[in-house]
């Protein structure tokens, strides 16, 4: 039995196990399983690999997309450029390869949300591993961006000093933070939503719940919105291709 799974913390919101279990059933893949491995810290990662020798591939989510890198033997060119890993392939010799399929999912999501109407400037909320992939995907499209972080050393703005003019002129706003994820669905990033317009596009990488407070506030202002499901499905299928190359 080939085993696959997801590492991160917490994982109560994740649809990965359900997605792959349904995929295996639908496609008649009988020799594979997928499980959630909630690690208390990244230090537990080597123990997980020792305890599960049949693990062939892993997805990686918050908060381990960056700190898992020192445990890997090699990175794909894109993962190295992005500085974050969300997909690991374990070779038969035990060698661990780090990949980033988030950026593949982001390309699909941005294509769907933006179409031919690409903005000149964007605002990215959050500066973690998911944000790194967003920055890479926007740079590919020559879309300039600012970063908003709780840590003033990591972003162009904090949530406390974010200028309303920046929100007004950033026609694409991406929530790359976990704020609003189940079960804390009443939360939303602290930005001045009153300055959103029907010209704005809001992308939330969160997919549970399908309509986050962030997206709902945008919807109320007439903005175009998209949740993280498109990205989730595209990156999951890209991971599967990597594991089976």
Structural notes for this entry:
With 245 residues, this protein is of the alpha/beta class. It has 2 domains: 99 residues, Leucine Dehydrogenase, chain A, domain 1 (Rossmann fold, 3-Layer(aba) Sandwich), CATH 3.40.50.10860; 128 residues, Rossmann fold, CATH 3.40.50.720. Helices cover 32% and strands 21% of the residues. The chain contains 8 helices and 11 strands. Strands 2-1-3-5-6-4 form a 6-stranded mixed β-sheet. Strand 7, helix 5 and strand 8 form a beta-alpha-beta unit. Helix 4 packs across helix 5 and helix 4 packs antiparallel against helix 8. It is globular, with a radius of gyration of 18 Å. The two termini are 18 Å apart. The mean pLDDT is 97.
For the record, give the distance between the C-alpha atoms at the N and C termini, rounded to a whole number: 18 Å
CATH architecture of the largest domain: 3-Layer(aba) Sandwich
Low-pLDDT stretches are none
Indicate the CATH topology of the largest domain. Rossmann fold
What would CATH call the class of the largest domain?
A: Alpha Beta
Mean pLDDT: 97
Helix content: 25-40%
Round the Cα radius of gyration to an integer and report it.
18 Å
What's the helix-strand series? EHEHEEHEEHEHEHEEHEH
Which strand order spans the largest sheet, edge to edge or round the barrel?
Answer: 2-1-3-5-6-4
Counting DSSP H or I runs of 4 or more residues, the number of helices is 8
Largest sheet: 6 strands, mixed
Number of DSSP E strands: 11
Structural class of the secondary structure composition? alpha/beta
